[in-house]
Specification:
Helices cover 33% and strands 26% of the residues. With 217 residues, the chain is an alpha/beta fold.
């Protein structure tokens, strides 16, 4: 059974590899703004779940070949996992800052405060090239931010790390110095919840232990 990660996130890939999987990575190319715009006043939970589902679906279509340029991987057995993370803070849902200016504004508004990192997960099981089962859910983790100095914020932004991550921070990198603590699932803050992924795999009839890589002989 092939495990496909519908994400280009190195952090998600590292979490899965450290937990015994060897995923194939297929980037979805989903236009997140277009997906969000198609939803009628979604709740934060609905938004991240919809984005995760759109990514998993796009990769399914690519691999099975229904998209132009698809790899036509028909007949294969696989499980596709899509994820999307956003930070809910100050009554706002925020994604990746993308620019240093946006990252600086983000940190100015969230320093010393508490937010909730929401990660939507969507799983598609494929058997003999056909979609057979789907499952999705969201994991929320409370994040308590520290109050870094302006010099620390400037150095963090200059590193480039916060620009391409949800909320403008990481827990497993330089950003970890500026997080006072979390209440909830550590792996979900990094980008993919191992406990939730295991439960969703169970819903589609798979056991995570059957997906673990075999120890080298």
């Amino acid at each position: 059974m092939r495990f496909v990660l519908a994400s280009q996130s190195p952090a998600r890939l590292a979490v899965l590899r450290s937990a015994g999987l060897d995923p194939s990575v297929v980037v979805s190319g989903v236009d997140e703004d277009a997906v969000a715009a198609s939803l009628a006043d979604p709740t934060p939970v609905e938004l991240v779940r919809a984005l995760a589902a759109a990514k998993a679906e796009a990769v399914f279509e690519t691999l099975i070949g229904t998209h132009e340029g698809g790899t036509h991987d028909g007949g294969a057995d696989m499980v596709i996992v899509g994820c999307d993370s956003m930070l809910s803070i100050n009554g706002e849902m925020v994604g990746k800052p993308l620019t240093p200016e946006a990252a600086r504004e983000r940190w100015a508004s969230m320093a010393g405060k508490t937010g909730e990192l929401l990660t939507g997960h969507a799983i598609i099981r494929v058997e003999n090239g056909e979609k057979t089962k789907e499952a999705s859910d969201t994991e929320g983790t409370t994040v308590r931010f520290g109050t870094p100095s302006q010099e620390e914020i400037d150095a963090y932004i200059a590193s480039g790390e916060p620009l391409q991550v949800a909320g403008g921070f990481t827990l497993d990198g330089r950003g970890g110095w500026f997080v006072e603590g979390i209440d909830g699932d550590f792996s979900s803050v990094i980008g993919i919840s191992l406990p939730l992924t295991r439960r969703l795999l169970t819903e589609v009839g798979l056991s995570v232990i059957d997906l673990w890589t075999r120890p080298a002989s």
